[in-house]
Amino acid sequence: MTLIDRAERRQRAIAGLPLPKTPGVSEFSRVTHSRWAGVALTLFLVYGIALALFYFDMRESLTTQIREVTQEMGQPNELTNSQYFEAFFGCAKYAAYTALAWGALFFLIDRLRPTFISMKLLAFGWGASVSVLISLELNTWMGTLVNVQGPGDAGTADRTAIFVAPFVEEMSKASIVFLLAMAMRYKLATAMQLIPLAGLSAIGFAFSENILYYARGMLYATKLYGVDPESLLHEYVMLRGVYTSFGHPLFTCMLGIGLYMGVRQANKVARVLWPLAGFMLGVTGHMMFNGLATAGIETKQLSMIGIMCVLMIGMWVFRQFVNERAAIGWRLDDYVRAGWLNERDPLVFMSMLRRGKLLLASFLRGWKVWRATANFINDIVELAYLRQYMTKGLIDQAGVAREHELIVDIAARRPIALSEVEGLKIKPENWTVANAKARVLRALPWRHGASDAKLAAKTAPVGYRQGQYSPNLVGNLVGVGSHGPATPPAAAYQAQQGRQISTWAPPTPPVSRQR
Q: In whole angstroms, what is the distance from residue 83 CA to residue 71 CA?
């Protein structure tokens, strides 16, 4: 890849486009030395500190409450550290079941253009640590402001739950989604990305909150009421972990929908109003849920209302999935008509099942084939969305250089990657368990040495170098049929590249080798 000047770097930063890869730098070194890796590591350290503060703050609060109540009952009793430790981590196991179930659902939704694993972990960690800690402190402080009758006011808890907690909790959960959407706006293009990130932040919050409620109920049952703690814990788990577990994910997903509607708008005012509308819709739903629960409505009725809302959102997400899948095919077809992609590429890579077949078959053929196939799929999907952004006016001419880079990478990886499912056998003929173990050992990070840059240099087509031509399909697709590629006008090309060109022809799309 060629180095870029300061003006192009600034244009890419404004559009949110990634910078080109530095020649000779491995993928591992590029990721570990990136700014994103430093930010993610710093946030994970912050999450660890927030979790420790949550643990000790919760212990101090429960110890004080149990001491005060037992003294009023005339039977002073203290909560020991070992009792609290056992209750906390014992209840964490039950809270993890709910988090894993919802996390698996959001992971399956985020498959069309998957977000990074680090982004998912950042969203979940924020909700489980920073968000719950902020909410505990603000809810306690603002609860004192809505106390109208002094100490012992029975309505303070209800007013806090209805009028304070929804705003505080939804704001704290939504913060990380807003930050990710601003920092990675180019990567977050679909509802199937933003909704899972919002949902992961919500289930992280619910995970820590469930530990708090489970442990408090279990300790209260043991220290104050003298009832069986296991039966009470089972009742809490069924109530919060099963019947009403939809609450936090449902409300925060409203924000994800608002962000999705906002990032696809060219109007700046609409980009602000749509996320705000989604946030207020989530807050309203949270207030209604807490209000109905405070009014004493039965849990089964709340569950039915929540299930209906989840089903409606699920149907809307499925419709968006169908639309996005079709859009990938349409945008890739533009490159087929221009001669840059094979005719079957849109049909293959718009299908999740065909992509899965390619990944599984490449995995059984070794590390290099799997790596090339996975990167090939990522590049071709990113190319489709980049084209979608450019046709909608969300990215200006800065996207042309990125378009060129993706086409070069796709052409370089095609000879190694699997890109066709017709006649492809998932398991190769010479595949055995022993060969599979050997391939796994060779795939370990410290065993393989070929970087993506070296791989691209070895497999790049002869006579087609970076910087030779940047396809501007907006102008070149006029009058282009399916019989051949469009030749860029010499004047437009010289004006764009700033240098003369004698002869040029796009590379012939190579035939993918099946293994």
A: 19
Whether 332 and 384 have beta carbons less than 8 Å apart is answered as yes
Is the Cα dihedral 160, 164, 168, 169 positive or negative?
positive
- Terminal-residue alpha carbon distance, the chain: 29
CA 437 to chain centre: 31
Q: Helices (H), strands (E): how many in the chain?
A: 21, 0
Residues 201 and 131: beta-carbon distance below 8 Å = yes
User: What span, in angstroms and rounded, lies between the C-alpha atoms of 109 and 93?
Assistant: 25
Give backbone dihedrals phi and psi of 132, rounded to 5 degrees, phi first.
-70, -35
The DSSP output letter for 489 is: P
Give CA–CA dist 117/115, Å, rounded. Answer: 7
Distance of CA 50 to the CA centre of its chain: 22
Residues contacting residue 246 through CB under 8 Å, at least 6 positions apart:
303, 306, 307, 309, 310
Q: Is 381 exposed, middle or buried (0-12, 13-18, 19+ CB in 10 A)?
A: buried
Q: Which residues contact 320 (CB under 8 A, 6 or more apart)?
A: 190, 191, 192, 260
* DSSP 3-state of 34: coil
CA angle 341, 345, 351 (to 5 degrees): 155
- CA 12 to CA 33: how far, in whole Å? 19
> Beta-carbon neighbour count of residue 265 at 10 Å?
15
DSSP 8-state secondary structure symbol assigned to residue 422: T
pLDDT along the chain (515 residues), means of 10: 67 78 72 79 93 92 85 78 90 94 94 90 95 91 75 70 91 93 84 93 95 90 77 90 93 93 84 93 93 85 90 94 93 93 93 93 88 94 92 83 91 93 83 69 54 46 38 40 37 38 42 41
Contacts of residue 204, defined as CB under 8 A and 6 or more positions apart, other chains included, come to 99, 123, 124, 125, 126, 127, 128, 129, 131, 132
Distances (CA, A) of 354 to 114, 165, 347, 377: 16, 45, 9, 11
CA angle 140, 66, 248 (to 5 degrees): 40
Distance CA 36, CA 348 (A): 32
- What is d(CA 441, CA 359) in angstroms, rounded to the nearest whole number? 19
Domain ranges, ordered by start, for the chain: 6-29+328-497, 34-297
Inter-CA distances, 294 with 291, 298, 403, Å: 5, 10, 55
Neighbours of 235 (CB within 10 A): 11
CA distance 460 to 466: 10
Inter-residue contact 468 to 323 (CB < 8 Å): no
DSSP string, 264-325: T-SSHHHHHHHHHHHHHHHHHHHHHHHHHHHTT--HHHHHHHHHHHHHHHHHHHHHHHHHHH
CA distance 286 to 250: 9
